[in-house]
Amino acid sequence: MIYLDYNATTPLSDAAREAMLPYMDRYFGNPSSVHAAGRETRAAVDDARDKIAALLHAKPGEIIFNSGATESCNLGVLGLARSGSSAHRHLISNKAEHHAVLHAVEHLQDHEGFEVTWLHVSKAGMLDLDQLADSIRSDTKLVTIMTANNETGVIQPMREISRICRDRGVLLHSDMVQAFGKCDVDVSLVDAGSFASHKFYGPKGTGFLFLRSGLPIQPIMFGGAHENQRRPGTENVAALAGMAAAAQWVLSDVDEESQREAQLRDDFWKRITNIFPDAQQNGDQTHRLGNTLNASFIGVDSETMLMALDLESVCASSGSACMVGSVRASHVLLAMGLPMESARSAIRFSLGRRTTAEEIATAADALGRIAERTKDAREYAVA
Ligand code: PLP
For labelling, which of 22, 69, 364, 380 has a CA lying 20 to 30 Å from the CA of 266? Predict the structure, then answer.
């Protein structure tokens, strides 16, 4: 199997597995228990928090552990929008966000009386910074803009976005899920940032929200006093230990690895254009994650292409993995103004640490066979 779907999820790293094992076996206490068994796992939770905070140049108290990106984005968006003054009921976002943000913002718009300005996204997937600056009003509470897009890999200019928000005194949340471990992530630019362990070779079902010190947030779940009253529930100790180890591992050589993946990705694209001369890349090609290639194979429906790739043992995806089973065109590509036929024929290939040059060559050979078959099918259909 050739796995080219690392933006959907990544395999568990050895570093994460090793860090997790003791907490799946010997150490099992509830970290909230005051006895020795509890103190052992509490130490592991504290250690994971310290490690992650150090990697982000943040304070341990700024890290709120939770179940992953969807929960983090929900907490960041809902929790910040609902906290503080009720006179501020204006939000700013854009339609190319992941549904974890998009649906949370839409919920506030549809059910809680917030007004939302949806920023335009260019054909290349970039935000218009002048429009952002012009959209900020005296009652704006929160701007939420993702750092790197999961479908196209497009990276937004977070430094400029941050400057605009800070100058105007509005809060900024960023979905940093795809950026962490792939490009520069600077949490000092934002008030809140969302992260998911399974996107950076840690275990699934865990993640965290970075929340700038001193910023109040309304919890979205209720129960215990965990995470400093901000997110209740007994901690998943093994997963937290694994996430911290994965984070350390993935950041140890992020620049070299991202260049390696970008070279493989560009080689793959050359091979693709030899086979499908009409294929078009989607998304800005300069401000983009090194591992992501989103391309439209005009005339070949994405679902058909994905099934054909699957038969050739190549794993890729169309749109967001969370939309599997749906034949709807990607909301991200439509937000970028791509024509329906481009959106409906788009495939996302995302490379990762285990991707090799041989795999890229084999995947390209598979595409060559698929091209022959689809050509035959189209000629047959015309006849
Ligand atoms: N945000 C981004 C950018 C993502 O890529 C994803 C997952 O694909 C999510 C949020 C949601 O992640 P999860 O399903 O792990 O909660």
Answer: 69
Residues near ligand 1 (Cβ within 6 A)? 68-70, 73, 98, 100, 146, 150, 175, 177-178, 196, 198, 320-322
CA-nearest residue for atom 12, ligand 1, is: 69
Ligand 1 centroid to Cα of residue 239, in Å, is 17
CB 122 within 8 A of CB 115: no
CA 119–ligand 1 middle distance (angstroms): 21
Neighbours of 326 (CB within 10 A): 11
Amino acid at 318: S
Active-site amino acid positions: 322
Of ligand 1's atoms, which has the minimum distance to the CA of residue 149?
3
Run of H or E including 306: helix 302-311
pLDDT 10s digit of each residue in the chain, 383 long? Answer: 999 999 999 999 999 999 999 999 999 999 999 999 999 999 999 999 999 999 999 999 999 999 999 999 999 999 999 998 888 999 999 999 999 999 999 999 999 999 999 999 999 999 999 999 999 999 999 999 999 999 999 999 999 999 999 999 999 999 999 999 999 999 999 999 999 999 999 999 999 999 999 999 999 999 999 999 999 999 999 999 999 999 999 999 999 999 999 999 999 999 999 999 999 999 999 999 999 999 999 999 999 999 999 999 999 998 744 445 555 789 999 999 999 999 999 999 999 999 999 999 999 999 999 999 887 666 544 44
The token pair at 49 is 């928090």
pTM of the model: 0.95
User: Residue 361: what are its φ and ψ, rounded to 5°?
Assistant: -65, -40
The H or E element containing residue 337 is: none
**Which of 98, 182, 350 has most ligand 1 atoms within 8 Å of CB, for mutation?**
98
All structural domains of the chain, each given as residue ranges with its CATH number in brackets, are: 2-8+253-382 (3.90.1150.10)
Closest ligand 1 atom to residue 9 Cα is 8
Amino acid, res. 368: G
Distance 380 CA to ligand 1 centre (A): 40
d(CA 253, CA 243): 17
